[in-house]
Amino acid sequence: MRETINQGSRSNANPKLTEQLKSSPAILNQILEKYRNDPDIDEVIEIIRLDAEITTRILEIANSAAFSPGSPVTSLKSAVSNIGSNEIIRNVICLAVSGKLDRPLSGYGMEDHDLWRHSVYTAYAAERLGQICSMDDETVQTAFTVGLLHDIGKVLTNEYLKRHPVSPLISVTKDGADVIQIERNNLFMDHAQTGAEIIRYWNLPEIITDAIRYHHAPGNTQSPIASIVHLADAAAHISGHGYGFSAMASHIDQVAWERTGFNSEMFYLLLMELQIMESEIERMMGLAR
After folding, report:
1. CA dihedral of 92, 95, 98, 99, whole degrees rounded to 10
2. Extents of the domains making up the chain
3. Which residue has the higher pLDDT, 245 or 25?
4. What are the angstrom distances between the C-alpha of 67 and each of 1, 63, 164?
């Protein structure tokens, strides 16, 4: 990551942004660690209550129309009880990283909220895909986290692209060019590699780092999560939630089909489910901003 940051500095990357990306949301590491150990409600509350902003947002969610509380929810314990610990964890992960992802990326032709919206839709698609493939709960939760963070590397590579626009990238939707290869040719490191280094710097589990690094090349790893997120990323693009210059570039690697056992009919059903979940996903996006 230090080499990546140094490269960013030489390409006039915003030093404040670089420092922000070096800093992992503390609550993210804690909540993921607890999830892997099958936490009880009291453990989840103990983590959340130390973060005033996330506590406030969780209470907002618990009091929203989506959960239709009979009376006002005023405590974290009641909020977790009403919403459910798994749903709470998903919400906390989104709230923890939204500040790093909810920003325009002019170098990629992405406007306000585009990256955040694509990331959230990919996360939900990855979670549902994992469930359909009968993955265990930990794998499904990890797929959600990777889906949410899969494009975080673009936040840093954007710093170069917005100062040095790459014409092949701008025309990617016209000729179906490979965005990853264009990044490598011009930046010497693509956004997936950059994102993996950011996540490694955060000391998140290697399984998350690995899946982010190879979400565009699932055949280069044995991790099924890379294949899940590869398909989920494509589903988000095809369902209309891919944005910027690469909005229509959604090549699907054959390895992802083979590793997950997914087929075109199942993929179509996943797209339908994303449409059905749209109001829930948009609610989450709004609360996490």
Report:
1. -120
2. 2-288
3. 25
4. 41, 7, 47
Contact 84, 62 (CB under 8 A): no
Q: Express each pLDDT in 34-84 by its tens digit.
A: 666 666 778 778 888 878 888 888 888 888 777 766 778 888 888 888 887
Residue range 92-146, pLDDT digits in tens: 888 888 888 888 888 888 888 889 999 999 999 999 999 999 888 889 989 999 9
* Nearest-angstrom CA–CA distance, 257 and 137: 21
**How does the average pLDDT of the chain come out, rounded?**
80
What is the third-level CATH fold of 2-288? Answer: Hypothetical protein af1432 (1.10.3210)
Two tokens, residue 65? 């129309």
Q: Considering only 127-136, 138-147, 152-161, 276-285, which range has the smallest mean pLDDT? A: 276-285
Tokens at 66, concatenated: 């989506």
Distance CA 181, CA 191 (A): 10
Residue with tokens 């054959």: 254
